Amino acid sequence: MFSLCLGGFFPQSKDMHDVAMIELGPVEDGGSYIEELMELTAQSLSRLEIQEHFNVIKEIGRGKYGRVLLVTHRCRGTPMALKVLPKASTKLKGFLREYCISLRLSCHPCIVGLFGIAFQSDEHYGFAQELVVGRDLFAIIKPRVGISERVVKRCAVQIASALEFIHRLGLVHRDIKPENVLLLDTQCRHVKLADFGLTQKCGTLIRFISSTLPYMAPELCAMVPDAGQETPKAPPLSIQPSLDTWAFGVLLFCILTGFFPWEYCTSTDCFYEEFAEWRQNPETTEVPSQWMRFTPACMEMFAKLLALEPNDRSTADVVKGYVGKDWVRPKCPNGLMGENGGVSSMTTMSSPCRSSPVLQ
Ligand SMILES: Nc1ncnc2c1ncn2[C@@H]1O[C@H](COP(=O)(O)OP(=O)(O)O)[C@@H](O)[C@H]1O
Ligand SMILES: [Mg+2]
Prior knowledge:
Layout: E1 20-23, H1 29-43, E2 46-47, H2 50-53, E3 54-62, E4 67-73, E5 79-86, H3 92-105, E6 114-120, E7 124-129, H4 149-168, E8 171-172, E9 181-183, E10 191-193, E11 200-201, E12 205-209, H5 218-221, E13 237-238, H6 241-257, H7 270-280, H8 296-305, H9 346-349
Parallel strand pairs: 2-6
Antiparallel strand pairs: 1-12, 3-4, 4-5, 5-7, 6-7, 8-11, 9-10, 12-13
Helix pairs in contact: 1-3, 4-6
The structure holds adenosine-5'-diphosphate and magnesium ion.
Residues 60-66, 68, 81, 83, 112, 129-132, 136, 179-180, 182, 194-195, 197 line the site of adenosine-5'-diphosphate.
């Protein structure tokens, strides 16, 4: 499985690959297996120059932490997706964790496969992944429109199944978003979750985070320190699968609508505030306008995925009970939502998904 080559096990150090300051929590079974795998990989990490072993065809992806290259293996001709992480911004421990967790999870049909090849060059750490020829889920979201409900439901059950598997192994993905869902076909008949660069053991403690994303749960957004402070008012947060469940709920909103529901889950975001108020007083508060396009059944599902209290949140597989029901209200001939659906004011109210020019 591993390419054999001498390499020392580097001392543990703060992971520059992560935006959060973390410390290890209670050891889970899955976690100790990963740690053993990390140690074994470190001892046998090949040193090679990418060009000597692979023909680099083109760059097929770029994220916050690394680049993904379409390559063919020089001897075998096998096409692969090589994820390369610059040593300048990646600690060895972070790389080993991402590689070993990806390897452990890669047997699931809805998680990207690995070749069992990890290496370091002078400037990079890298590992070879199965090449997923479609684009990622973000690339097929039509801004302000989203993706058809039928296709969203296909994605939803597959992502839920991948999350169920990850969580059963005592791990939390921590970066669920459309960019990290790879497509084998444009109709999403087969999708694969990727990017385990932020994945951690359940129970790992987060002391603070430096910035927020729309997919982050309220309890995570509370970990940003106030201006001029080094630590947040909130006590350290234990990483739980409920963080992924929340992000999954936001992802479903994004791909169904082509909008983010909010920018961040704090009281300064009026879209989040409106949603939180409705969740706290569902009997007396109207459904916020950007949620009115959804059926009551779909809203029930969202209420379970996006429960404000992490302990009240359902597991991701709750969506499986809702795929047989309608999610989006039918449109009236005038283009507005039917029966109690209200007029969608999303185009003026919500922020469009990622302000990439491609999607404007
Ligand atoms: N195995 C793969 N096959 C095809 N494209 C991929 C593959 N892995 C990643 N990508 C593309 O590369 C992008 C960045 O990869 P990712 O692993 O998410 O890096 P980062 O950790 O920097 O976010 C993804 O959003 C996706 O578009
Ligand atoms: Mg990514």
